[in-house]
Amino acid sequence: MTDVVEAAIPPGLRPYAESMVGYRIDGASPGTHIGMPSGTITLVLALDQPLHLIGADGRRGRFDTVVAGLHASPAHILHDGFQHGVQLGLTPRGAALLLGGPPGEIVGTSVDLAEFVGPSARRLHEQLCDTPGWRERFALVVEALFTHRDTSWEPRAEVEHAWNMLSRTRGRAPIAGLAEDVGWSSRHLTHCFRQEYGYPPKTTARVLRFRESHRLISAGRPLTEVAARAGYADQSHLNRDWLAFAGTSPTRWLREDDIAFVQDTTSSPGRS
């Protein structure tokens, strides 16, 4: 049995969250779900049982609430065929709202939400467990995490422009062109971009291109078409990036990851 419900993101929340999904999966084959690199910071509020996570940095933990920073290698979720929770795809501004600083601070790693928001993370988790409806759960998440919260972090305008262009073009904007747009050298843009987002723009562009290929493959498009539409030279190039970012080939992933569709639901850019 599978229940996946996507929330409508309130207009006031759109600068902070790309997606919010409730899911309950029961009866899948036990195994390992690959947490794919993407252009968002992932927040998971696990219900009924903790999330058994091996992060992109190799650290293992069991979390009721966890924030996974931007990463360029796969994370792994070990499961017994049952998964239940709420998952959000946060923008860098959304992550900064919770962290109180630039999202680059947690790049490549996963951290308990309580480390950033304190005891309110535990209270939110308890309330979600006691609340049966998805709509009510989504309202609790918005109230607890985004209402009455201020951020002191603002990205530099030049760096934010580069981020937005990379996101809008799904990783296909040339870095030299972005540097020219903002009047900086490519080297200076790379330095400042890394300071704020944790990765240089070239790596970010590759991750966003991979994310687009992930979305198209999840939608059932042929690999040759995916390679062309996502900006790869050919299918071999696509396969190399999948091995680098996902640790597996697209065909093997489709064959072996029995709950792959949870992240698929939250990986499409521009959802609301």
UniProtKB/TrEMBL annotation:
SUPFAM superfamilies: Homeodomain-like. The keyword Transcription applies. InterPro entries: AraC_XylS_family_regulators (IPR050204), Homeodomain-like_sf (IPR009057), HTH_AraC (IPR018060). Keywords: DNA-binding, Transcription, Transcription regulation. Pfam families: HTH_18. Residues 175-256 form the HTH araC/xylS-type domain. This is Helix-turn-helix domain-containing protein. It comes from Janibacter alittae.
